[in-house]
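Bumping my old thread because nobody answered last time. Still need a sequence for this structure:
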């Protein structure tokens, strides 16, 4: 395949990779210099001597930050990264949404909800080989949508269900035996390590043109930057990234969102429960949707910084928005039209009002709807504007770093804007 060939998808053109490209989405990787919680995970780990590879990249490659999609949650950002476009184009606006036509609340993990092709599919159609490994299985079918699977063409699987992979469903078999790691618990650092180990194995054996590795933010929800557990996690990641670099890959790293402390001095979460707040305004029958909700809520209790509210017919949207906006801990309240314009969201999957909390607050529906028994440490979470800044790192020097980088520019940047090796 000629390296001068370009691939066009979702209105953007991507140059053909001149070396295998590995894009890594480090779930919840708060960067340095963007909040009151101190420096970021990577920066603190570098300072501790735990990330020698990324320390070198900081000096000789591209090491900047970018904005993620708001709501700053996993599904909308992973799909933005792999389509190169915001949720208004690809349709995935949360981990979870309310289908008003069917009057049902839906997990956003069905490929039928995706409204745009992925970069992977476009490149495979042009002859590229693709490998996708995600820590949690919830993303797998979305990321692999439209791919023709088979180890000579594409593989797509999760760490969570690595012992269940088949040629028909995942394009590969026997990955657990090949890596030599047992399938990790879903609430563990090892779930992400398995994805990295699989990435190195596939780079050695398959050597795909494009690879995507997506981790879990279990560690970031529980441990702040610079803590021993966080540094150990990032040291693990650095070792695998270094191996991929030594194998000749272009390694590009970003995140789906940052992560901030959301508890008070007493260790209790700073929660604003929206259902009783709306009811106290005399509005009955409102529905609060928390798009952070997914099957893995133990470490955050379904509490995040972004919510959308569906109001009953006849409710005064502007009056409700003003009243909620006056509440302590609320950063922003927008009606549907304003929210969709500002955050580039699909209007048919957003409620009448969008609510965003301040840096150290989270939003809930009602106290009896959240099980917080799994929160064994002070809550750390994400979802709002305060978690929008993320790392944007490539192991090659950039020819162009603009002022308005988004995390979903990472493929375009790594394929189109790097100095020759």
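Sorry it took so long. Here it is:
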């Amino acid at each position: 395949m000629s390296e001068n060939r370009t691939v066009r998808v979702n209105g953007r053109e991507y140059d053909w990779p001149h070396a295998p490209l590995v894009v890594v989405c480090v779930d919840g990787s708060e960067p340095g210099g963007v909040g009151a919680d101190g420096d970021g995970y990577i920066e603190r780990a570098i300072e501790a001597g735990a990330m020698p590879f990324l320390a070198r990249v900081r000096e000789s490659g591209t090491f900047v930050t970018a904005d993620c999609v708001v709501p700053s949650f996993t599904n909308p950002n992973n799909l933005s990264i792999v389509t190169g476009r915001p949720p208004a184009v690809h349709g995935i606006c949360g981990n979870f949404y309310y289908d008003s036509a069917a009057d049902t609340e839906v997990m956003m993990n069905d490929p039928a909800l995706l409204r745009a092709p992925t970069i992977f599919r476009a490149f495979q159609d042009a002859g590229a080989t693709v490998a996708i490994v995600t820590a949690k299985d919830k993303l797998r079918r979305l990321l692999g949508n439209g791919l023709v699977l088979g180890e000579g063409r594409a593989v797509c699987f999760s760490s969570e269900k690595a012992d269940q992979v088949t040629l028909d469903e995942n394009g590969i078999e026997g990955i657990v035996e090949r890596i030599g790691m047992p399938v990790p618990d879903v609430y563990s650092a090892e779930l992400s390590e398995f994805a990295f180990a699989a990435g190195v194995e596939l780079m050695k054996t398959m050597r795909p043109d494009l690879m995507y590795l997506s981790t879990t933010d279990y560690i970031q929800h529980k441990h702040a930057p610079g803590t021993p557990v966080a540094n150990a996690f990032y040291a693990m990641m650095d070792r695998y990234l270094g191996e991929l670099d030594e194998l000749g890959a272009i390694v590009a790293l970003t995140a789906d969102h940052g992560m901030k402390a959301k508890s008070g001095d007493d260790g209790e979460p700073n929660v604003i429960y929206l259902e009783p707040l709306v009811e106290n305004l005399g509005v009955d029958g409102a529905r609060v949707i928390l798009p952070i909700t997914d099957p893995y809520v133990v470490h955050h209790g379904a509490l995040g910084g972004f919510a959308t509210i569906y109001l009953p017919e006849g409710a005064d949207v502007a009056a409700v928005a003003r009243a909620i906006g006056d509440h302590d801990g609320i950063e922003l309240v927008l009606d549907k039209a304003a929210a969709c314009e500002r955050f580039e969201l699909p209007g048919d999957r957003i409620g009448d009002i969008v609510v965003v909390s301040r840096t150290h607050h989270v939003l809930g529906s009602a106290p009896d709807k959240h099980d917080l028994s799994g929160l064994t440490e002070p809550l750390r979470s994400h979802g709002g504007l305060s978690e929008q800044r993320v790392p944007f790192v490539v192991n090659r020097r950039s020819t162009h770093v603009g002022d308005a980088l988004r995390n979903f520019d990472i493929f375009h940047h790594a394929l189109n804007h790097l100095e020759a090796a």
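The chain has two domains: 6-259+383-416, 271-381. Let me know if any region looks off to you.
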